[in-house]
Amino acid sequence: LGEQLPIAASAGQPGSLFPLLAVPLLVAAAGWALAFLLQTKSGPSLVARSNWAKTLYVFVLNKFYFDEIYSTFIVRPTLRLANWLWQVVDVRGIDGAVVATGRQSVGLARWLWEVVDVRGIDGAVVATGRQSVGLARWLWEAIDIRWVDRNVERIGLAANKTSHKLQEVEPRTLQQHLIVLILWLVIATVFFYWIVL
Questions:
Q1: How far apart are CA 138 and CA 145, in angstroms?
Q2: Where are the alpha helices (DSSP H) in the chain?
Q3: Mind listing the pLDDT tens digit for each residue in 24-39?
């Protein structure tokens, strides 16, 4: 653990980066010198005389075919993968799930509207309305017309009998009896309407 690698030890010392910087500079200077010699020399060049030099020249001129290799092995497969992901995952998967969920939601809403709302709630409201109308008709026929008419007729007959008896009684007593009778008629009428409503 205490030992250090030679590169790490030399990297910390001054002047240790000189070989690392000198090698690329020497290679570049050699390339410039070679290019100068090839350009200034009269007669056919080395590239024109040798097939392997022509091949090397074309290879270097096309940047080692880096763009073509990069396009063939990186760009095209990435585009194919992106297109596949778009077609299969996005269009068929995600968009298909969203569309299917929307269709199911519309179908569920239609079913709820038809079954629960139209058949259930609306049917219950209509049935309650019919029962209310039937009950109101029965109350009107049974209680209001028959019962109230019979009781009013009884009260009228009773008032008629009492009026005959009251004619025999003296006038002051007759007035008192009429007031009591009217009071009882008002109370009975209010009571009957209170029961009906």
A1: 10
A2: 6-11, 18-40, 46-49, 51-61, 66-70, 76-84, 96-111, 123-138, 149-168, 171-196
A3: 899 999 989 988 887 7
Q: Which two three-digit tokens encode residue 87?
A: 């077609």
User: Which among 13-17, 42-46, 75-79, 108-112 has the top mean pLDDT?
Assistant: 75-79
Residues 87-137: pLDDT tens digits? 998 888 888 899 999 999 998 888 888 777 777 777 778 888 888 888 888
Rounded Cα–Cα distance for residues 5 and 21 (Å): 20
| Better-scored residue on pLDDT, 148 or 186 | 186
Q: Is the CB of residue 188 less than 8 Å from the CB of residue 151?
A: yes
- The closest alpha carbon to 159, from 185, 124, 188, belongs to 185
Provide φ and ψ at 41, rounded to 5°: -75, 135
By percentage, how much of the chain surpasses pLDDT 70? 81
**Closest listed residue to residue 29, CA positions, set 41, 37, 40:** 37
| Residue in the block written with tokens 């109101």 | 136
First to last CA, the chain: 105
* Residue 11 to residues 7, 15, 20, 187, Cα–Cα distance (Å): 6, 9, 10, 120
Single-letter amino acid, residue 50: S
